[in-house]
Write a structure and sequence with these properties.
proline dehydrogenase; Proline_DH_dom; proline dehydrogenase activity; nucleotide binding; 8 strands; TIM Barrel; EC 1.5.5.2; 2 domains; alpha/beta
Length: 304
């Protein structure tokens, strides 16, 4: 039953029709738990609240359903506005983005040009931009563009997904760049030909890539709510004398709030991924697919 529900929500998240309906009806039925709002100001307010108890953030203007150059340019403009708003407000936050929202599926050149504009503005504000990894079909081109950008920019990082077979090789290949990586398990539905179908295998690979990237001496963001993974990381850095300045724990807005605060009290850097915007439906569906408890939260809200 759980697998059926997971597949259903992942499929819904890719539906253009469902996405249009979601935009029409807004953040209802519990989505506001996971999405900070539809405007920049709402997201800045959310980040300010996180900063007050020691958490930093990365803001993401959601946008996965971009079908025209005009929409892609609008999305890039929102990324720049977000960087400006972060600087003007003084909140502690980076920027995260998906390159499909910048028109990657329309034109590689369009996407790269926008990425450079965004990184230039981030450089002006002494800020950092994280490229989110998407499904397997976008993996290689995302890494290729990242390598291209790193020739001129050191304020950009990317995400690597533990559930892909190729990931360990990607870690090795990126080592020479001194890449700042966010390491995640992976939330997209992928073929067993390219990804580990078994959760235990994903968890084991996740631990291995965390260890490898930390041992390589490069900055590592461990993005997980899995307390076993967090405990493993704590033990590994302690045993190998790795400074807390070389890594951070990352979690999603609205999930495991008490665990986030506890890690801050223990002296770890904790960064919260804070999404906002009207194009929130795909993100919301992935959160429901990841954890059945989130579904019951939403169902309860529907009847309030």
């Amino acid at each position: 039953m759980e697998l059926i529900m997971k597949n259903m929500f992942q499929s819904l998240g890719k539906s253009r029709t469902a996405n249009r309906l979601a935009k029409k009806y807004g953040l209802r039925f519990g989505a506001a738990r996971f999405v900070a709002g539809e405007t920049i100001q709402q997201s800045i307010t959310a980040v300010r609240g996180l900063n007050q108890d020691g958490r930093v953030a990365t803001l993401d203007h959601l946008g996965e359903f971009v079908f025209s150059e005009e929409e892609a340019l609008e999305s890039a403009a929102m990324c720049i506005k977000t960087l400006d708003a972060i600087a003007e407000s003084g909140v502690k936050s980076n920027l995260s983005l998906k390159m499909t929202s910048l028109g990657l599926d329309i034109s590689r050149d369009l996407c790269v040009t926008s990425m450079k504009r965004i990184l230039e503005r981030a450089r002006v504000h002494n800020n950092f931009v994280r490229i989110d990894m998407e499904d397997y079909a976008h993996c290689q081109i995302s890494l290729d563009i990242y390598r291209e950008l790193r020739k001129d920019y050191d304020n950009v990082g990317i995400v690597i997904q533990a559930y892909l077979f190729r990931t360990m090789q990607d870690i090795d290949d990126l080592a020479s760049l001194g890449a700042n990586l966010r390491l995640v398990k992976g939330a997209y539905k992928e073929s067993p030909q390219v990804a580990f179908p078994d959760k235990s295998a994903v968890d084991e690979n996740y631990k291995k890539i965390i260890e490898k990237h930390l041992t390589n001496g490069h900055y590592t963001a461990i993005a997980s709510h899995d307390e076993a993974i967090i405990k493993h990381t704590k033990q590994f850095v302690s045993e190998h004398g790795i400074s807390n300045d070389q890594f951070e724990f990352q979690m999603l807005y609205g999930i495991c709030d008490e665990l986030q605060k506890q890690l801050v009290k223990e002296g770890y850097r904790v960064r919260i991924y804070v999404p906002y915007g009207v194009d929130w439906f795909g993100y919301f569906m992935r959160r429901l697919a990841e954890r059945p408890a989130n579904v019951w939260f939403v169902l309860k809200n529907m009847f309030k």
